[in-house]
Amino acid sequence: MKRKALWIFTAMILLLVGCQSSSTTQDTAKKEVTLILDYVPNTNHTGFYVAQEKGYFADAGLTVNIVEPGNNETSATLVAVGKGQFGVSYQEDVTYARSAEEPLPIRAIATIIQHNTSGFVSLKSAGINTPKDFEGKVYAGWQAPSEEAVIRAVMNKAGADFDKVTMIGADGSGFAAFGKTVDLQWDYEGWAVTKGRMDGYDLNYLPLRELDDRLDYYTPLIITNEEMMQNDPETIIAFLTAVKKGYEYAIANPKEAASILAKAIPDTDPAFILKSQEYLSKEYQNDAPSWGIMKDEVWDRYTDFMVEYGLIDHKVDAADQYTNEFLPQ
After folding, report:
1. What is the phi/psi pair of residue 45, to 5°?
2. Cβ neighbours of residue 208 under 8 Å, at least 6 residues apart?
3. Angle at 308 between CA 221 and CA 147, to 5 degrees
4. Is 103 exposed, middle or buried (0-12, 13-18, 19+ CB in 10 A)?
5. Half-sphere CA count of 249, side-chain side, radius 13 A
6. What is the pTM of this model?
7. Please, are residues 22 and 74 in contact by the beta-carbon 8 Å criterion?
8. Is the pLDDT confidence value at 24 over 90?
């Protein structure tokens, strides 16, 4: 009887241990997802790295792989075909994707930065203080149709003649070409312009959002695909909950957030990362009631601009391009 009782007791202990082990395995299991960046890691992406470092993704039940796109690939295309569940993209690319003859099945689900923080950059000595001063100057860029449309629009608004600006392809030398072969570029204030000033360039900067309201669009933003939206909304909510916490931390703690990002880009000057972070931490949410929120009017204004300048051939409703429904309140 004692041996039988001992066997029963041992069996119960094994059963309890097995149950506990199974429960522990379930508790620690994380859903694996991939986030595809738009470019190499930079301060636009700080919130993701904070969420990774501080355990916000883990707390949300996620393992997040942060990857860069390959050569000649865009996050919009990769997310559309399921190569990643989430991506960093731009309002312009989403509108192109949704207005295509065969629309790509993606939507924007949060904006990383509330306002457009890009603009036109030149040396102060070039005397370029308004788009009217673009006349007679050489502009270096990536030669995309939207780039020409934006320059044409701001020059038209200033009463300038677009045909009097010379547009060439950028050779990668950046501000070093200023005063030699190039007078003007289009760059982000929080990254290239900040670095240029730290490197000693005396720069003029014309914010795009101050030149034309229609050009104050969302760049960058976060996208997902329709399959995720339809079949796995819980994962989208979990992801955005963690990401929002990451950006809110970066807003409140720019110095600490910069240190976290620096681990992902160890070859980048930490002083520059901090300077860039101090600027963008103020821009992530800016005047919005909450991080990530988007508005119809911003989408509609830029979509109308794209139609007017022939970048797309028909208007796409804002609701077909973005949603706030997965953002935590």
Report:
1. -105, 5
2. 116, 118, 119, 120, 150, 154, 186, 215, 216
3. 55
4. middle
5. 24
6. 0.90
7. no
8. no
